[in-house]
Design goal:
Chain lengths: ~180, ~170
């Protein structure tokens, strides 16, 4: 009994320390499978998620980076955010609204947020994603960019994102995939 | 766990209840604690995710920098057009191409890439052109096939041209 108890607590301690609670993901994306074994970095990362519906979400790793990013957004778009809103922004891993709707989003309750996030505008007349990526790159020039797109998306949707990145002279990026066994 | 009081040797049976005190164990019932410990273990085991998602590196050619445009021999280039419903069309070179249709199976496009790269001394350059009706998944599959294929293969992603669509239409109508 004592031995089992010891072991149980040892395992418990291990899993408690090894667990890193992740904020639940906002965008609902099923990533395609590939044989690539490269891991996604845990920091210095910008993730552009694209849902099956075509809604684009913007996410950045690191609370400090997110805080700085909001400052950049505030000065670029001449919007001032309160301390509480800024704190809320550092907490959410990704968002999918136009920048003008960001303030109401940060004020909304968690249950209301789901339907508020219709995606970031990426059309050629109002490409806010381009601005966001540009600002995020200023915030953290080391950040790599990953595209996390749904496997059933039509390619032209992904192409718009790639073209947006290319307009910013970003020619190197990653596709987020899930691991699949390699055929021999 | 040590038993403390061990003086009962012989003696009287008198001393009311003393004997019961002596023989009572100091062991605690640990069952509920262990139950709880295992419950928590189970919880943390199920919630822990060790695996970080995988990624695939993609490099696109620089659009603004014209100096870095490369001239590549026609015989080394293979154009792969991704069509609708997971169809794949490919041809070598540029002049009078002979368009072939294949798929993502083991004997499909990977075999074609391997065969073509085997007869070349230099790298094979695969130009991937995802069609308007192709899915994002098709592109990832195609990149995968290139990574798996044996031989020296390089790739680039490029938008599909009207000429390519024309070639596919001709192929379909035959």
């Amino acid at each position: 009994m004592t031995a089992m108890c010891d072991m149980a607590f040892l395992l418990l301690t291990f899993f408690m320390l090894a667990t890193k609670f992740k904020a639940p993901e906002v965008a609902d994306v099923a990533v395609p499978a590939s044989f690539s074994k490269n891991k996604l970095p845990e920091s210095d990362l910008i993730v552009l998620s694209v849902e099956k519906s075509g809604a684009v979400f913007f996410g950045m790793e690191g609370e400090a980076d997110r805080g700085k990013l909001l400052d950049q957004i505030a000065s670029r778009y001449k919007i001032s955010y309160t301390g509480a809103e800024k704190k809320e922004f550092t907490r959410i891993p990704e968002f999918g609204t136009a920048i003008s709707d960001l303030k109401p989003l940060l004020r909304a309750t968690k249950s209301d947020r789901g339907r508020m996030q219709k995606g970031i505008p990426v059309d050629s007349t109002n490409n806010e994603l381009k601005e966001l990526v540009k600002l995020a790159k200023w915030t953290n020039p080391k950040a790599e960019i990953a595209i996390k797109a749904d496997l059933d998306l039509d390619y032209p949707v992904v192409e718009t994102i790639i073209l947006t990145l290319q307009e910013l002279d970003i020619n190197k990026f990653k596709f987020v995939t899930s691991l699949q066994a390699k055929p021999e | 766990m040590a038993e403390l009081n061990t003086d009962s040797g012989g003696g009287r049976r008198g001393g009311k209840g003393r004997k019961r005190n002596n023989s009572a164990s100091t062991k605690i019932d640990m069952t509920p604690m262990v139950d709880l410990a295992f419950l928590l273990i189970t919880f943390f085991m199920l919630t822990t995710s060790f695996s970080q998602p995988q990624t695939m590196e993609v490099n696109m050619p620089d659009k603004t920098d014209d100096d870095r445009k490369m001239e590549i021999k026609e015989s080394r280039t293979m154009t792969v057009i991704l069509g609708e419903e997971d169809k794949v069309y490919w041809y070598m070179g540029y002049q009078n191409p002979e368009v072939q249709e294949t798929d993502f199976s083991e004997q499909g496009i990977r075999r074609a890439v391997e065969q073509k790269s085997a007869i070349l001394k230099e790298d094979l350059v695969v130009i991937i052109k995802p069609g308007k009706k192709s899915k994002y998944r098709n592109l990832v599959d195609m990149l995968d096939e290139i990574h798996i294929a044996k031989g020296n293969v390089r790739y680039s992603i490029s938008p599909v041209s009207d000429r390519d669509l024309e070639l596919i239409r001709n192929k379909e109508s035959n």
